[in-house]
Write the structure tokens for this entry.
Amino acid sequence: MSALPKPSIDDYSIPSKHYSSRRTRYRKNSLSSKARQSQSKDGSFPQSSDRALQRSSPQTFQFPQVQPLPAKLKVLLLVQKSSLGLALILIASSIAVYVSTVRIPELWSKKYQDLETLQRQERQLVAANESLKHKLAQQAQEKDSNLALITSNNTIFIPQAPPSQPKQTNLEEDLRETSLKNMPMGY
Amino acid sequence: MTKPQLRKSLRKSKYHSSVNDRSQRKNSAPKQIPAKKTFLSRLLLVWGMLVLSALGLAGRLYYLQIVNPTITYKQAPEGKTLKQIARDQQSTKLRFYMPRRQIVDRQRNVLAVDRITYELYAHPYLFKRNLDKVPPEQVAEKLAEILENKTSEELLKHFSQRDRGIPIAKNLPESVKEKIEKLRIDGLDLTQNYSRFYPYEEVSAEVVGYVNRDRQRRPQAGVEYTQQKLLERPELSWLLKRSFMIFQKKNQSIFYPGELKNVKKMLKFDDLSLQLTIDLRLQQAARAALKEKMEQYKAKRGAVIVMDVRDGSIAALVNEPTYNPNFYEKYSVELFKNWAITDLYEPGSTFKPINVAIALDAGVIKPSDVFEDTGKIKIDGWEIRNHDYATKGAHGTLTLAEILQRSSNVGMIKIINRMDRRDYYHRLQKLGLEEKLEFDLPGYAPGHLKNEIEFTVKSIEAATTSFGQGFSLTPLKLIQLHSAIANGGKLVTPHVVKGLVDFNGYLHWQPSFESKQVFSPQTTHSVLEMMETVVEEGSGQASKVPGYRIAGKTGTAQKVSGGSSGYDATAKITSFVGIFPVESPRYAVLAVVDEPKGEHTYGSTVAAPIVGSVIESLIAIEGIPPFEKGSGE
């Protein structure tokens, strides 16, 4: 921050004045009528009705007095605008109703059926797997199965190894060894 | 035209028309009077009728809603209010079956699981394929191909009984259901059911038990019966508005539980299963060993119990003969009870080590004491002999270990004679012989001692009790007492339920068991060493496994006969109890064989080899290394 040159107050003050003056003018325009906003922005006024006024009083600039829109038109405009909003709300709500009454139950029930199928399959798999294990065990028990039983005679018991002692190492010796190893043989 | 102008013109035209009307009415008035009257009366009539019928309807509505709100016409269920009928029509009851929990063994092999089965019903009046009628003969033929145990003639006979709702077959597996569906014949109705399936058939039947195959699914035996609360998951059901929650789409019914509360209820399940302490491999090995000896001696029945002496968990519990729980209806009711738990027997010599422990604890004998065995002894006018008196006569001076090795009755009587009979009786009671034991399998029978007065007055009672006759207990109780000798004197609670285990093998619930000290550790240690000599040098050599230290005691008891004379001369009950490994006891193994036939039927020849092979299997399953001298205890 400190490296940047501090902006002088004047740099800002001049355009701000400019803006404020323009804004006031704009506000005056807008007071006349909402319908004429777009026209008053670029400063050009309708010629036909206002020319007489300009001529009669060239000294003072007078804004054209626009007649307010008829009430019916206003109502119609309001209806148009609100119906658009209403339509949007209706579309949204109908989608919401569809989703909540048709789509969600559909998805939910599909997923639940999947879950049930999976659970059923799991149980079937468990039953099949265990039956197979039982069959194998039965076959192994038959005398001519040629399978040897595990007994203490044919089992190797490996005694538990004593806990290994951590090797005592000398850091200096280790370092010396490695440094000798890395030394080129010719020197 | 401006607006005012327009209004004016409208007014004018109205005015004109009204003038015209008036002139017309004036002209025709005298002729129209009767017509007007009839018109009015007609109008009144129609109006009156409408009003009357509306009033009637309102009255009927009032009557139905308030005066008598029950409907009596045929279609409506009797005695129901309109509100109830409306609710019935607008909503439907949904039922969701929650499968019963699985039962798994120590290694999580599944011993019992729920399986979907189907019931087949036939409605002959509906027999159709693609709207064409199918003759019942053809249906019977096709069905007979699928159902193995029915012929087409039998099926035809079934079909001729009624025109609808004929039960054809039960417990059909999924594969059969698919085959029947492929026939695409209307009028064959399959209803889904759940039934319990036991993949290991009879291997663990005496522990697991079975569940009735009817709709109530009532458990009948074993853990299924006692652990009903843990195993059963209640069926979910609630009323659901039919309006939009359920509808059909592409042959697939769609439903939605609606409220979040219901969804939560439906999805509230777990994968917990009931784990038993049973080891299936050991169970299988024990059964094989027991079966072999029972066939050899044509025995009536037999039982093997393997108990972990440290906590009383039972690793194997085998009864022979047994049943296959998948077809329980084919067996006699006798087999469903677990006789190792429900039937009392006189333990005979297998009880001698317990008596020695009692005497040592009472301080009347020392491990180094010796007793004079005269071969026979007279008590209360009864002559009691050793089992081998006829062949060997008097044994002479015997140590405590030798009394056990030779299973000397005289020696035992002399040990117990040193005790006050009343004290002896109370010490027997302290072992819980007569107490009820809360066991995980139904029907445990408490043991039976003579009453205290009889016991203390007659010396014969204490004498017979000293060698294990004159009182009775279950094999389960006997192994519990021997476990106390093995584990340093603690009377542990025998149990088969380990707890509720999840898919990863973590226990989520565990029952807690009490244990109480009944012998001092010094006593049990010396008794255990005496019992080891029984296997090394005495009657229990058949149970020896080279390289391992095994303690044991044989028993050959006479059976109480039905008559008043007392004992049956021919019927014996042979048993052997083994404790292993002696250096740090882990398992007690009891084998009991009832009524073996033929010569040389003793605990040492019939039961001891069974225990020997069970211990062999235990070594293999648990990987117990042989005892090395100097390795320490």
